[in-house]
């Protein structure tokens, strides 16, 4: 195994361990999104910039998708407008898919995926959107921190 591969694997293991500690002590629901986020960001990242970019895109896409879902929830359950709900959700979903081919394809894809998943079961929109958003952002922070410290150290020890 090459040293770079070992460091990446170690980063993922450390990230998942930290995520597990957060989940254990904070009793988080839907913690799978935190684990997936850490793996998706850290496993393929061979330098700090790639990991930071992927973490930023994942946070942005999930935040936008979560926000659209929360707006949809408000429209459906507070304004009681099913038609307006579908217009908002479908517009957000379509814009996410359209922008998937543009400058931020990963973020746009995650926007649509979050909207779809949060609204799949309308009765749980609020819970799913909030937990997914929180878990993904926490996973991004963990991956970001690990990338910053370990990859920075790795670059210095490689020279």
How would you portray this structure in words?
By secondary structure, this protein is mainly α. The protein has one domain. 83% of the residues lie in helices and 0% in strands. It has six helices and no strands. The longest helix has 34 residues, at 125-158. The chain is elongated. Its main location: membrane. Residues 19-143 form the Integral membrane bound transporter domain.
Brief summary:
The chain has 159 residues and is mainly α. It has helices at 3-26, 32-42, 48-77, 82-99, 105-119, 125-158. InterPro entries: Memb_transporter_dom.
Helix content: over 70%
Report the principal-axis shape. Answer: elongated
Q: Name the average pLDDT.
A: 76
Structural domain tally = 1
* E-strand count: 0
Termini separation (Å)?
19 Å
Task: Classify the secondary structure makeup into a structural class.
Answer: mainly alpha
Major sheet, described briefly? none
Alpha carbon gyration radius: 17 Å
Proportion of residues in extended strands: under 5%
Oligomer: single chain
Write the element-wise H/E pattern from the N-terminal end onward.
HHHHHH
Q: Uncertain spans, ≥5 residues at pLDDT below 50?
A: none
**Helical run tally:** 6
InterPro entries: Memb_transporter_dom (IPR049453)
Domain Integral membrane bound transporter: 19-143
Protein name: Fusaric acid resistance family protein
Keywords: Cell membrane, Membrane, Transmembrane, Transmembrane helix
């Amino acid at each position: 195994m090459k040293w770079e591969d070992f460091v990446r694997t170690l980063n993922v293991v450390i990230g998942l361990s930290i995520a597990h500690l957060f989940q254990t002590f904070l009793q988080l629901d839907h913690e799978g999104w935190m684990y997936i986020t850490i793996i998706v960001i850290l496993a393929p990242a061979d330098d700090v910039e790639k990991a930071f970019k992927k973490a930023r895109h994942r946070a942005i896409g999930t935040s936008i998708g979560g926000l659209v879902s929360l707006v949809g929830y408000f429209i459906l359950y507070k304004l009681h407008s099913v038609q307006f709900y579908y217009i908002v959700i479908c517009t957000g979903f379509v814009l996410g898919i359209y922008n998937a081919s543009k400058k931020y394809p990963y973020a746009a894809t995650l926007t649509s995926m979050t909207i779809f998943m949060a609204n799949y079961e309308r009765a749980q929109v609020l819970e799913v959107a909030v937990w997914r958003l929180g878990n993904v952002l926490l996973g991004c922070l963990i991956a970001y921190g690990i990338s910053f410290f370990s990859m920075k150290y790795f670059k210095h020890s490689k020279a």
